[in-house]
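Lecture notes, continued. The same structure-token format from the folding unit now serves as the input rather than the output. Read the line below as a description of shape only.
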């Protein structure tokens, strides 16, 4: 009996100790709404994101597989915001870049009206501005001397002299002096700028020989580079807002005159020509220009810019369930171009649907952690690396290295920014600050690295691949640059040489065999 009593007391004592240790397991646990793997027996903060932990029954652990159930408190913690899908008259805003050029309609060639010898030049180099009636050169011409003598004798050859290039003032001087000069001043027919000089002093010229090329600067042309995908939105007569690189903050309005009917096979862009008034004459050829074109996109469904989560040409949008107001379910949609009112929806949503416009990524991350359907499982993008010829790839890399060097120098935007047929390049062009530009540059770098590793580097091009582990909150990012010290485009001067060089997995070079076949 004594032994049995001792045993019973021991069993009771062990049971009490076990119960003490097991109580936390069966008691209500507190979990992080964003990181459900973080569990604590009582109120606490998440060591990963710092959010307050909530009781498990409030953390929506039993969320349906078709979405995420969120209580009102968790919606506030995740800062979830929703907006309705709207049907609007959409306006597409195209951001283009280009350069100024001379108005070809105002470019003229001054020619010799008679044969002779150039005795003296009054204008020596391109770029000089000349006024109408200003002397360009002195010409000795027996034909012109004979015509003047005939005029003094008969007074009936006035029209002939005008056709030979004499001005009314020169005829009046000839009439008053009554003597024929050995040389005649050839005058500029209009105001303009000298773009080309074709002759030198002492040179003999024939009738019709070009002397100078002059350009009238009262109007200039602007050539913009437009992506293939943008051409459908551009029409002659469209109004365009221009900002000149040399005059930041100053805008001008111009009109589309012509859209080239062909696309450059190397750059994959077409030229859009504008006509711009230049009354002050301060615009000259070759100036860098940024442009905004507002194109009518017609009636369309739009969602806020922040609503879709993109994977390739498709996207996932989180829709507020109409049956259960606490559930947010993913839906695969097809998103069209960016409009001023938001992103155009081509397929997958109806007018009045309520979508998550803020916090969609947090919801998607939560579903990924729980192993439920999310952006990563609903859409499996196919990573296709295009075959690119060496000339085109050289052009792409040249533009990308220009951006990399600009970002590494903590400058934005680049001095020259050309259109590129690369996905995400338009977002880079539209970046209004350097932080946005750095985020947009990262997927472009990944794409070009993949293209280089699939196609190889063009002949004569030397680049290295670098990796910064600290970029974008330790997610890490890669880039291409010229050989030499690392120049980190994601941090600039803050950590200019942060990173490490990594090997480029270039394809093996093809080998020539004696019989002439390539393997």
């Amino acid at each position: 009996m004594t032994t049995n009593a001792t045993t019973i007391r021991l069993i009771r004592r062990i049971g009490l100790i076990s119960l003490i240790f097991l109580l936390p397991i069966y008691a209500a646990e507190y979990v992080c709404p964003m990181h459900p793997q973080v569990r604590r027996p009582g109120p606490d903060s998440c060591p990963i994101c710092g959010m307050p932990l909530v009781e498990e029954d409030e953390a929506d652990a039993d969320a349906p597989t078709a979405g995420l159930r969120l209580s009102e408190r968790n919606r506030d913690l995740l800062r979830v915001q929703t907006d309705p899908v709207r049907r609007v008259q959409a306006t597409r805003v195209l951001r283009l870049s280009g350069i100024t050029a001379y108005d070809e309609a105002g470019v003229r060639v001054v020619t010799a009206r008679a044969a002779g010898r150039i005795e003296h030049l009054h204008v020596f180099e391109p770029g000089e501005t000349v006024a109408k009636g200003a002397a360009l050169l002195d010409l000795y011409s027996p034909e012109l001397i004979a015509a003047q003598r005939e005029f003094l004798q008969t007074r009936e050859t006035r029209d002939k002299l005008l056709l030979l290039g004499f001005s009314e003032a020169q005829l009046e001087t000839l009439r008053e002096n009554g003597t024929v000069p050995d040389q005649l001043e050839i005058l500029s027919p209009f105001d303009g700028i000298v773009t080309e000089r074709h002759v030198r002093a002492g040179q003999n010229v024939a009738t019709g020989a070009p002397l100078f090329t002059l350009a009238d600067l009262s109007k200039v042309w602007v050539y913009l580079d437009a992506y293939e995908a943008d051409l459908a939105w551009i029409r002659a007569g469209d109004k365009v807002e221009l900002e000149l690189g040399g005059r930041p903050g100053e805008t001008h309005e111009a009109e589309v005159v012509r859209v080239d009917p062909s696309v450059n096979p190397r750059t994959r862009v077409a030229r859009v020509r504008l006509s711009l008034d230049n009354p002050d004459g301060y615009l000259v050829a070759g100036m860098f220009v940024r442009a905004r074109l507002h194109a009518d996109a017609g009636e369309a469904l739009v969602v806020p810019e922040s609503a879709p989560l993109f994977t390739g040409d498709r996207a996932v949008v989180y829709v507020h369930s109409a049956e259960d107001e606490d559930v947010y379910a993913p839906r695969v949609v097809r998103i069209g171009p960016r409009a001023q009112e938001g992103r155009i929806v081509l397929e997958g949503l109806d007018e009045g649907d309520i979508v998550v416009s803020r916090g969609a990524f947090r919801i998607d991350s939560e579903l990924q952690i729980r192993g439920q359907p999310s952006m990563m499982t609903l859409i499996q993008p196919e990573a296709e690396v295009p075959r690119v010829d060496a000339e085109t790839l050289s052009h792409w890399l040249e533009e990308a290295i220009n951006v990399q060097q600009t970002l590494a120098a903590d400058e934005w935007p680049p001095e020259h920014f050309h259109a590129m047929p690369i996905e995400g390049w338009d977002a880079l062009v539209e970046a209004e600050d350097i932080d946005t530009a750095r985020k947009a540059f990262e997927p472009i770098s990944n794409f070009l690295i993949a293209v280089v590793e699939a196609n190889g580097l063009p002949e004569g091009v030397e680049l290295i691949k670098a990796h910064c582990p600290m970029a974008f909150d330790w997610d890490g990012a890669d880039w291409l640059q010229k050989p030499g010290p690392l120049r980190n485009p994601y941090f600039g001067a803050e950590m200019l040489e942060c990173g490490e060089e990594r090997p480029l997995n270039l394809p093996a070079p093809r080998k020539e065999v004696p019989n002439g076949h390539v393997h």
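Point for the exam: Residues 1-5, 10-28, 58-65, 511-519 have pLDDT under 50 and may be disordered.
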